[in-house]
Records
---
Amino acid sequence: MFLVGLTGGVATGKSTVSNMFRELGVPVIDADAMARRIVEPGRKAWKAIRAEFGQCVFHDNGELNRAALRTIIFEDEEQRQKLNLITHPEIYKEMCWEAVKCAAAGHQYIVMDLPLLFEAGVMVAYMHKIIVVTCEEDLQLQRLMEQRHLSERDSKLMIGAQMNMDQKASMAQFVIENSGSLQDTCEQVSRIHTNLTKSFFHWKVRLFFGVAIGGLVGLVYLISKKMMKIGSGTSWTTSGGKWHPLTLK
């Protein structure tokens, strides 16, 4: 199994592309879903956010007030970095565990939906291929304002907090242009899926882990065998209530 990174800008249509991969039978691990999971009341990241940002970013019932937190982090780079240091390690732990379960199920590849793949940089090296979903700038702004009911100012702040789309596209192996129809986007996804399913990289990964596991099992066997030989050449007797080894000659 190998990992395929899926990223893009906010409101470029990444979720639409994720769903298209799911319809093709490809597992998709969504960082946003993991982000919601790790800030559930009582969890490690929830406690750390409460300690760092205070009660003002929480609702009365203890749930995280994302709107209040968003207002803070998108206008203050330092505060955004503090939040990332709290949440990103926990998100990656959750995603890695989900990836292990997908690998055990025998999937050829999985899609890791990571909005901040390039900005964070941590997971880039683990991706066999990277897909960037992009669209026209005006359309991105319009979608964001409509989908999240944000003002133009807040929408531009959110877009500006992410890496430039042209820069992201230049670092990807596949780029999906999502300014057109759903059919057009679907055809692009299908072509990429066909390309990825032709790859033999997952067999190389399985071979590597097979050899590694086989080597470990072999080492354990040799150590066990050696210990058995040592044990068979030594008997034990007692003297003064203490155990002493008696080597057979």
---
Amino acid sequence: MEEGTELKDGDACKVNMVGYMAAPDGVTKAEPLPDAASGDNVEVILGEGRYMEGLVEGLYGAKVGDTRTVYVTFPNKLRDKTLAGKKAIFDVTVLEASNRSIPEVTDEFAANVRAGLTAESLKEELQKAVDAEDSKKYVNVRNEALASALAQVMDVDVPDTLVTNQAREKYALMMTEFRDNGMADDEIKKLITPENFVKYKDIAKPDIEEDFKVSMATDEIANMEGIEVPAADIDEQIKSLREQAVSEGQDG
């Protein structure tokens, strides 16, 4: 990229980023962000939806050597719940910049990718890869929709003892997450009261009942279709779910 050229959509750049939480007014810098949220020599490719909201937009028009103050919002689904959905401010210095060009897909280009490939067969392979990735992306949404539909058609009473036991486990996990996120034990103890548990149980009850109904429905479908799952597979799934629960509790 020529010296003095402004960054535009599709360009790539390397930047140093120093981040701060945003004060309530949204424009004043507050406490510094954790080191993991900042960084040096970070590659940024300018394009919509690639990064946290505001980062790319704040770099459009910048040149090598420029330092921009960029206002961003962390994604709501960020694993670090202390930052999820929060507003932040970054001082971003552009170190390098380059144009990114997409080569024309010809038979010669395809043969360089792998001997024997043509432009048409390469496009077909790429399309299959994209379709496979899309199916992975939407599988959770599909499963949630199926689970909700199954729960709605299941006419079964869920024992209150089951709801209570499940709610107690979830409540204990929530207290563990509070501790992992830095809440003092004395403050946690204040939350553990019969009144608070009853309130939590009322909130968690619909999800617990739905999970139970879905489990009953899938068992019934398996019986009707003669589906048998090997015991080893069941043990493996239970182990995986336990590890996931522990991991989620630690990550907060």
